[in-house]
Every structure is written in C-alpha cells, then in structure tokens.
Amino acid sequence: MAITAALVKELRQRTGSGMMECKKALVESNGDIDVAIEAMRKSGLAKADKKSDRIAAEGVIAIESSADGKQAVMLEINSETDFVAKAEDFIGFVAQVSKIVLAAQPKDVEALMALPMNDAGDSVETVRQALVAKIGENILVRRFALMSTDDGVIGSYRHGDRIGTMVKLTGGDVVLAKDIAMHVAASRPQAISGADLPAELLEKERDIVATQAKDSGKPEAIIEKMVEGRMKKFVNEISLLGQAFVKDPDVTIEKLVNQENATVDAFEFFEVGEGIEKKEDNFAEEVMAQARGN
Q: Which phi-psi region, left, alpha or beta, contains residue 100 (left: φ > 0; alpha: ψ -120 to 50)?
C-alpha cells in the first residue's frame, strides 16, 4: 500500500510523533494506521490515540427536556459549514426536530424522518429536503439519544453548540446530575465503571503496558506490579466512577455520588461530527484549477 502524505499527517495528529517515525511505522504496518499506532505505543514512540483530532463536521447538538424533567433527548444535526449551523432557518429546524423526538420517541433516525413535522403533514424528511434546497447545503439528522426515569433524576449540559451530555441518576438531585453531566463533557469517560469497559480494550492496553514494562529490564515480580498499577490508572482515567471530579479533583465521581446516596444509571456524550471524516480542500489545487478555467 502506498504511504501517502495524508496518511502520515493523520498518524502524526493521532500520536504526536515525528514525521519519520510515523512514516516508518506505516511502512512496517503496510499502511494500517491502527496497527502502526499500537506498535508505536509498544515501543514508547506514541501516546494514546487522539481520535478526537479526526472530528471535522459542522452542526449543532441540541437538548430538549420534558416539563417534569423525567424525559430528555439529545440530538445531533449536521451541516457542511459553520456558517449554516448558525443560520436562523437551521436553528429553527433543529429546535422543531428536538421537540418531535421528545414527544414521539421514535426508535431510530429512519422512523424520525417519517414523522409529520407541520400542519400540512410534511414529514421531517420532506422539510429537511426543502431546507437543503433553500440554503444550498446538505443537512443531516445524524443521531439522537433518549433518556427517561420514573423515580430518578436527569441532568444535562451543553458546552456551546458542539458538545452535549446527559446523565441519569437514582438518588441525588438535579444539581448533582448536572454537575456530573458537566464532568462528562470535560473528561469524556468511555463507561460508567471499569466493569463496563470492553474486554478487548483492556486486553489490548494490558499487552501494550506489559511490553513497555518488560523493556524496563526489571525483575518479573516488579513488572507484574507495574502492569497492575498502570492498568488500574488506565481504567480509572477512562471510567466515570474512577475519574477525579473536575470541580474537586480530590474527590472521585464514585465518592461524590456515594456521599449523596446516589448511583449513576446512564450517561450520553455527543460531540458534533464525532467520527465523521470531512473532506480537506487543497487550496493550491483549487487556485490552479480556477486559473486553468480562465
């Protein structure tokens, strides 16, 4: 596989490593960027994969809650440019769709797009297509998450228009739920507790830290303790209950909720464009193309 400059650039962004190290790793992995990252981490050349650097799409995250606070929805709608994401027509469309999701509770985006959106009976999809025609840019209703509780509390937090979180607690109060929602936005946990993390993720990390520890040359008994210590740190860093509370780093989230006799039942985290690859325009090629056209 040809090792392109774009592939090297992406690996540099995701690892923070130098250009030559990235190129060598890609050659050895035959262009497989995930294999290259794993090999570089084992050799100590790379830090943890910074996948958030790949986020590029525009749009907004919206959150809508019921009057009694027992139901909430978080919705992502994408546009091609930030300019459109701030336009009045786009913002109005997002607000309407959020209310429809909360009221109708569709099972997925496909079901949502078929729901009526106005008095004329036009579906969400029909209104979306009309908006696309009006503004000249593609609009995508990408995803939503619904949360409900009978005897618990739901807290939500939006950081600007690009990041949104929801948290459901049993026990505690709305203030605590919102504090934890804010924490989720800042710390981005991957699961509620270490027990909820995928076994494959833990096995992969253990392999990496074991390889690093063996390279230290220390006795086997010491290496085992190093591996266990690093794995405990890794699990705490990416699981909600093990993380230090952003508003009081001396207290973990687990200790915080225990103090309030509460438990975390669920959380959701959305970031605009998360996981979407956006086309990167080559300005020089664009200028040359225009020059040739003239």
A: alpha
Examine domains 151-190+247-275 and 197-238 and report if their fold is the same. Answer: no
Ranges of residues in the chain with a pLDDT under 50 are 51-56, 281, 283, 286-287, 290, 294
How deeply is 230 buried, as exposed, middle or buried, from its count of CB atoms within 10 A (0-12, 13-18, 19+)? middle
CATH topology classification for 53-148: Tetrahydropterin Synthase; Chain A (3.30.479)
Burial string for 77-90 (b: 16+ CB within 10 Å, else e) reads: bbbbeeebbebeeb
Q: Which CATH number fits domain 197-238: 3.90.245.10, 3.40.120.10, 1.10.286.20, 1.10.40.30?
A: 1.10.286.20
pLDDT of residue 18: 77
**SS3 breakdown of the chain: % helix, strand, coil, rounded to 5?**
50, 20, 30
User: What pTM, to 2 d.p., does this model score?
Assistant: 0.74
DSSP one-letter code for 122 = -
